[in-house]
């Protein structure tokens, strides 16, 4: 299984989104994102924003980087610190 | 070069941070500090509280990258960055940046640069509670514009 | 706008000065402080001590003028300037500038401006004791050049 | 009498210069400066530097402003604070 994390505004809209996602051969963050967007209409807009970044095991990753079973996948909307 | 990067929910003490920086080296001639405070009002709305969300490990790494960029750009003796997370009230301290250098120009420029980069590159998400409503803070255009000062070909301001 | 300008031989306490600035107004979002320290070495010469001479009354007036210029240029809630005079040793604090504003850009720019103007406009004369010899410090070209940043027609850095 | 003050490097070279100067009708800071430079060779160079400013009763003054009996005249070389 892949552990899912949603930050910022994505965390709000992801209130009903799953915390885990079934791992499968060749799965990418991009595929997970589209699957979530289809199943959770409240997530669509915020999740598909072009500024959203993704990290795998706490390192910024490419949307097409393959995911391994047991990894932590996080969706990071634009930051607003300071 | 001494570097201190901390993400914490506890408050910080400017006096402690300043003492640490000024005692690093007898060649230090300038210490610039920046303290960010929660304003009571934002975009004409009264603020009840702010909440800063972070991603443990990644947030610290993003702050370290910003500090590294400043170190490569100016000759510095010490840099400290403290960012608070969690719930904060008006007038609370949010962020501390401190820079010690031999000369004032490097200290001022590096502190200014650190704040601009931190606002746009630190992995932190801010929400505001106002009139019982919570809303996520949008990235400001002015913060994006501030960054451009440091990437234009001219000498640093 | 709260203004505090002091010329004194006693040391100052950054924590006290910061507290005073941050408590001025709940709309304050940024406090920038600058502390100048006596470096142990200047132009490759080891320094035994520095002495700052002032002209009572006139030195305060010259500092007030510099602060007034900053107030007219940026929206500020508070400015404090403390300049020490008399004999100082390496690592001693010489000068404090603190600026409180709603926004960070104004606070950084005003503090930077204040230091540049103070270096060139404050009525103070600095001598250095090194190897038992006393010499008067010359005005630096770099200080004169730093000033030009604030008089060029482009927007402030 | 006019009270004389010399600051910075001028204070050093003025160690032997008078602390008082006889007031007279139409006397100006410029006239005092030249009289001092003639009588005190060690002062000449530092006193005649173009960057030297003058103040009367703790206000920056013009070199040709008339001096009044009892005033305080100060010679201010380039500043080096901060």
Explain how this protein is built.
The complex is a heterotetramer, with two copies of chain A (82 residues) and two copies of chain B (157 residues). By secondary structure, chain A is an alpha+beta fold. Chain A has a single domain (2-76), classed as Beta-grasp domain (Ubiquitin-like (UB roll), Roll). Helices cover 26% and strands 23% of the residues of chain A. Chain A is built from three helices and five strands. Chain A has helices spanning 9-13, 29-39, 44-48; strands spanning 2-6, 20-21, 53-56, 59-61, 72-76. A five-stranded mixed beta sheet of chain A has the order 2-1-5-3-4. Chain B has one domain: Alpha-Beta Complex (Aldehyde Oxidoreductase, domain 3), CATH 3.90.1170.40. In chain B, 32% of the residues lie in helices and 35% in strands. Chain B is built from four helices and ten strands. In chain B, α2 (58-73) packs antiparallel against α3 and α3 packs across α4 (141-148). Chain B is globular. The two termini of chain B are 23 Å apart. In chain B, 41% of the residues are buried. The chains are: A alpha+beta (82), B alpha+beta (157). The interface between B and C is medium-sized, with 35 and 35 residues.
The helix/strand series of chain B, from N terminus to C terminus, equals EHEEEEHEEEHEEH
* Uncertain stretches of 5 or more adjacent residues of chain A: none
Secondary structure tally, helices of chain A: 3
What is the H/E order of chain A?
EHEHHEEE
CATH superfamily of chain A: Beta-grasp domain
Brief characterization of the structure:
Chain A has about 80 residues and is an alpha+beta fold. Chain A has helices spanning about 10-15, 30-40, 45-50, and strands spanning about 1-5, 20, 55, 60, 70-75.
């Amino acid at each position: 299984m892949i552990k899912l994390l949603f930050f910022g505004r994505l965390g709000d809209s992801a209130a009903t989104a799953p915390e885990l996602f079934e791992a499968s051969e060749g799965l990418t963050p991009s595929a997970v994102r589209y699957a979530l967007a289809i199943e959770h209409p409240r997530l669509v807009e915020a999740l598909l924003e072009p500024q959203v970044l993704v990290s795998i095991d706490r390192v910024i990753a490419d949307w097409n980087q393959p995911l391994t079973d047991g990894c932590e996948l996080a969706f990071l909307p634009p930051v607003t610190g300071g | 070069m001494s570097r201190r990067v901390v993400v914490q929910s506890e408050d910080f003490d400017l006096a402690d941070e300043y003492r640490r920086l000024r005692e690093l080296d007898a060649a230090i001639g300038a210490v610039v500090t920046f303290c960010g405070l929660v304003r009571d009002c934002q975009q004409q709305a009264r603020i009840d509280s702010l909440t800063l969300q972070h991603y443990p490990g990644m947030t610290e790494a993003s702050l370290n990258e910003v500090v590294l960029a400043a170190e490569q750009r100016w000759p510095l003796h010490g840099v400290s960055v403290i960012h608070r997370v969690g719930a904060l009230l008006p007038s609370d301290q949010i962020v501390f940046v401190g820079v010690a250098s031999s000369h004032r120009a490097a200290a001022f420029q590096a502190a200014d640069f650190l704040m601009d980069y931190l606002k746009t590159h630190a992995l932190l998400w801010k929400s505001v509670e106002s009139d019982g409503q919570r809303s996520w803070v949008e990235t400001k255009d002015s913060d994006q514009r501030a960054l451009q000062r440091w990437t234009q070909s001219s000498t640093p301001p």
